[in-house]
């Protein structure tokens, strides 16, 4: 495992938080990202989210530019507001606009802070203006847990002198 510098602690917990980039998260979870067009019917978007077991999807315009994000939360809210007319809606009618985004090299602690502040569970990853990934708060938490487990195992192996499994 490469050495990671410390990031400032979150809140008043103190201590050191090991940093990692969005690229490292995507390398572990996969770079595939599902997107939809802004004119896609919301029932089809809901079916896509369900079939792929994902909680959000970036919305692109006809030129492939990010214009929003449709989340499960947005779909439930639209269903509640529009009732029977829900099936007539398009992605652009329910999507979150001005979506927070991130880059491949951004530190995941900074991304998590922004997601928490904006109450965004999903953040598109952009490279040169193109959507190249999507990270969820769950992806970031899972990555941090795996990193902590790896660090604990490496530390334990170092202390007991077991170098067979050291990083």
From TrEMBL:
<protein>
    <submittedName>
        <fullName>Putative cystathionine-beta-synthase</fullName>
    </submittedName>
</protein>
<dbReference type="InterPro" id="IPR046342">
    <property type="entry name" value="CBS_dom_sf"/>
</dbReference>
<dbReference type="Pfam" id="PF00571">
    <property type="entry name" value="CBS"/>
</dbReference>
<dbReference type="InterPro" id="IPR051257">
    <property type="entry name" value="Diverse_CBS-Domain"/>
</dbReference>
<dbReference type="InterPro" id="IPR044725">
    <property type="entry name" value="CBSX3_CBS_dom"/>
</dbReference>
<feature type="domain" description="CBS">
    <location>
        <begin position="95"/>
        <end position="153"/>
    </location>
</feature>
<dbReference type="InterPro" id="IPR000644">
    <property type="entry name" value="CBS_dom"/>
</dbReference>
<keyword id="KW-0129">CBS domain</keyword>
<feature type="domain" description="CBS">
    <location>
        <begin position="26"/>
        <end position="86"/>
    </location>
</feature>
